[in-house]
Design goal:
This protein is mostly helical and 94 residues long. It is built from four helices and two strands; from the N terminus they run αβααβα. Strands 1-2 form a two-stranded parallel ribbon. The radius of gyration is 12 Å and the shape is globular.
Length: 94
């Protein structure tokens, strides 16, 4: 994957979100040590070149709103619903 250092760090963080769980743009920004960069995180999530593999659909806007998704909110909602049956911890910062 080719991206800026920040984008790659965001994409690596996306890979840590367990199936069936979700997090927010601001939570990712905080985990990266950039608590005010939630909009930049959103941009990086949107530039994810392989979203089927890197789960950008697991990121929500603050307050649990779906936010955007390249393939539309209907598909994002369906994927999240399908994954909901799994359990595991929410995003853990490393």
């Amino acid at each position: 994957m080719i991206g800026t250092d920040f984008e790659i760090r965001v994409w690596q963080t996306l890979l840590k979100i367990p199936m069936g769980k979700a997090t927010t743009y601001s939570d990712i920004a905080a985990c990266l040590g950039k608590p005010k960069a939630s909009r930049a995180v959103g941009t990086a999530v949107g530039r994810n070149p392989i979203s089927f593999v890197v789960p950008c659909h697991r990121v929500l806007a603050k307050g649990g709103k779906l936010g955007g998704y390249h393939w539309g909110l209907t598909r994002k909602r369906a994927i999240l619903g399908w994954e909901t049956g799994l359990s595991g911890p929410v995003l853990e910062c490393v």
